[in-house]
Design a protein that fits this description.
276 residues; alpha+beta; Monooxygenase; 5-stranded antiparallel β-sheet; 3-stranded antiparallel β-sheet; disordered N terminus
Length: 276
């Protein structure tokens, strides 16, 4: 028994020097790498809860690279641009229920739904109403003329990067009658950074009507889409023009939407009403 105790004591005395400060530092570094990988499988709420457990976890999990990964992962977009803002803030504004009508025209807003996110790699956009891919782009004309003749138009000087698409349900702006139950659906797209820019927050940026298009004929559905011109012919974008694969059946009144890496489109079947 005594020999065993002496051997045990000898092992302990030999093992102790191995845990030097350098070894502990290396162990912590490896531990941090492991938790960084684990964080890639957590949602934002779980990351925050874990970060609140200790200063060590906070220092590891509040690193901006973790929030960039979470943001790109949850929005399902590739890493396509740099940003002037912290990714944790961008992540929060993309998942906390904020939308354009939260800041403007609240009295008109009824409901909304998130469609998804996409990217502008170029600064030129093509807006369409009929969702029929043209064999070639129409000659550019004044926006209103293009809308009247081609049911489409160009927009230039688009901010590149990640954009978020929402469908907004708002009160019909045609009349001011209190008894009017008319509603309007709006395809609302915004840059990921919009809610953090000073011009938007202080109200100095105003909405501007680019153009309008009156539909005179009877139609069974309404649709619209916005596309990065650079990727209009790419395989992922052309899926949006295959309407049979994603729009609802004729008696389905629920709006349907589809998003790709560089475009978004929406379609809604219409019911007859007494509106003008």
């Amino acid at each position: 028994m005594g020999k065993r105790l002496r051997v045990s004591k000898s092992i302990c005395s030999c093992a102790s020097p191995r845990f030097s400060s350098a070894s502990l530092t290396a162990f912590s570094r490896l531990d941090a790498d492991a938790w960084t990988e684990i964080a890639k499988h957590l949602d934002g709420k779980s990351i925050v809860m874990l970060a609140a457990t200790s200063k060590w976890f906070f220092s590891i999990l509040m690193d901006d690279s973790i929030w960039k990964f979470a943001c790109l992962r949850d929005l399902r977009v590739p890493d396509c641009s740099e940003t002037r803002f912290k990714w944790i803030k961008l992540y929060a504004s993309s998942v906390d229920g904020s939308h354009s009508y939260s800041f403007r025209q609240k009295e008109k807003h009824i409901d909304w739904m998130r469609i998804g996110a996409f990217s502008f790699n170029s600064s030129d956009a093509f807006l369409m109403e009929n969702l029929i891919c043209p064999p070639k782009l129409p000659m550019e004309d004044a926006t209103q003329n293009m809308l009247n003749s081609h049911e489409s138009c160009f927009l230039h000087n688009i901010k590149t990067g990640i954009w978020i698409a929402d469908l907004q349900l708002v009160r019909c702006p045609v009349c001011d009658l209190n008894a009017c139950d008319g509603t309007m659906q709006v395809l609302d797209v915004r840059h990921l950074e919009l809610f953090h820019t000073e011009g938007y927050k202080d109200g100095s940026w105003e909405y501007k009507l680019v153009g309008s298009h009156d539909v005179k004929r009877h139609v069974d559905s309404a649709s619209s889409g916005i596309f990065d011109i650079k990727h209009l012919k790419s395989p992922s974008t052309t899926d949006l023009f295959d309407l049979k694969s994603w729009v609802g059946k004729s008696n389905d009144w629920t709006p349907k939407a589809k998003v790709s890496y560089n475009a978004v489109a929406i379609n809604t079947n219409l019911q007859e009403n007494d509106g003008t």
